[in-house]
Amino acid sequence: MLMRLLGTGNAPQIPVFGCRCRSCGRARVDENFRRRPTSAEIQTATGRFLLDAGRTDLADWVDPETLSGVILTHYHMDHVAGLFHMRWGVCDPIPVYGPPDSQGADDLLDHPGCLDFSHHLIPYEATQLTEDLTVIPVPIKHSRLTFGYIVKGHRESLVYLSDCDGVGPESAQMIRDANPNAVIVDCSFPPETGRNHLSLDRAYALAEELQAPWLYLTHIGHDLSNYLLDHPLDPEGRLVLSHDGLTFHFD
Ligand SMILES: [Zn+2]
Ligand SMILES: [Zn+2]
Ligand SMILES: [Zn+2]
Question: 20 to 30 Å CA-CA from 183: which of 47, 153, 169, 218?
Fold first, then answer.
């Protein structure tokens, strides 16, 4: 099984439209420093899923024939924008798993096209999506109903928390009990700034709380990116900066 991060930027992404800061300038000349909107994919021997779908180019290259479904953390536009193109696909219905948020995003739920949004997940309840993939939604703190996910293969597990401004005690306990190999978490802002998303100091605190061996930061904003140019993460530490294309292999 593998999980690949397809987009590790926050809603403005990097480069930000019109911005001439160091991080945005670097991303304009070197593709490797781009951070696209939040999207990831999970591949197993028996299925392929998108985990969030914020990239607007997904319809260009995702093959509906091999797509088993889409798993959503929440319905903010930077996590679902790619679905607005995919929904008009000419293909069998594609199941979308996620929180029971009747508002959705814009007219997505009223005009779902080929996407089947009826697969509401229940907090803390394991759902087996394929023979070798189980997800457990854990509610996390954000500005609207949002699930993090414990993603389990046969033996190993990852935890995905984006968007996130902290985790309540019940979700934290469940994450610790899952003993994940890595936690991927929203960290949008430099220390002591921002809200509804983690800042760097709060990400350190969450790593302690979850007792995570590795905390991979995603949903990165350009202000945090600039801060990290001057204050790089300790290479021996638990926090790791993710990048578009980062792939976790497990099982
Ligand atoms: Zn910038
Ligand atoms: Zn959000
Ligand atoms: Zn977001």
Answer: 47
